[in-house]
Amino acid sequence: THSPSIFPNYIIDNYLEVLHKRGQFNGVLLIADKNGIQYNNALGFANFSDQTPVSTHSSFRLASVSKQFTAMAVMLLEDRGLLDFGQDIQDFFPDLSFKKITILNLLQHTSGLPDYIELAENEWKTNTLPLNPDILKLLIDIKPPLQFLPGSEWEYSNTGYVLLALIIEKVSGFSFE
Predict the structure, then answer these.
(1) Radius of gyration of the chain from Cα atoms?
(2) Rounded distance between C-alpha atoms, residue 61 and residue 79, angstroms
(3) Cα–Cα distance between 117 and 119 in angstroms, integer?
(4) What are the helix (H) ranges across 59-142?
(5) What is the pLDDT along the chain (177 residues), one digit of tens a residue?
(6) 8 Å CB contact between 44 and 25
(7) Which residues pair with 36 in a beta bridge?
(8) In this structure, are strands 27-33 and 36-43 parallel, antiparallel, or unpaired?
(9) How deeply is 83 buried, as exposed, middle or buried, from its count of CB atoms within 10 A (0-12, 13-18, 19+)?
(10) Which DSSP state fits 174?
């Protein structure tokens, strides 16, 4: 709750170092306000097995931490009339084989889409992590079956949020980042 200017950078550095030594911090801390970036530093490892250090330019998989931001972006686009919650995802991805899945199904985890993580483990043939467009291509190429009819059940869906991020990009004209 303190303004970053209250603490000099060396105090924040020392605090992070203590947390890191205790095994309580590994990553990047960025503090910004209306005046811009006030603090930006990295500590720890991007890869523990080979001890590759993390940097302020390291990329992190945020996983479910980003879902609320994804949902809010979709809600803003809907509020601005740029998409509709009842819209079929085939409006955005006509090559997908899945029928009658709406944006609302994606938001509410009721789409029935298969988990992309398992799909990628079995089908992704490179040493890099698949990005959202890669996941879409896998879904189009492999055509895995739905786990249940859209709207009939609830199951947490990372795949749905990958598609929502791609829809946000298409509708807004901006990268999800």
Answers:
(1) 20
(2) 28
(3) 5
(4) 67-79, 103-107, 116-123, 132-142
(5) 444 456 788 999 999 999 999 999 999 999 888 888 899 999 999 888 899 999 998 877 777 888 999 999 999 999 999 999 999 999 999 999 999 999 999 999 999 999 998 899 889 988 888 999 999 999 999 999 999 999 999 999 999 999 999 999 999 999 988
(6) yes
(7) 33
(8) antiparallel
(9) buried
(10) S
Q: Which two tokens stand for residue 18?
A: 């203590």
Q: Write down how long the chain is.
A: 177
Q: Is 65 exposed, middle or buried (0-12, 13-18, 19+ CB in 10 A)?
A: exposed
The residue with tokens 């302020």 is: 56
Query: Residue with structure tokens 């043939």?
Result: 125
d(CA 25, CA 45): 10
Q: What's the CA angle centered on 143, arms 171 and 118, to 5 degrees?
A: 90
**For residue 42, what are its two tokens?**
């990295």
Known catalytic residues are: 64
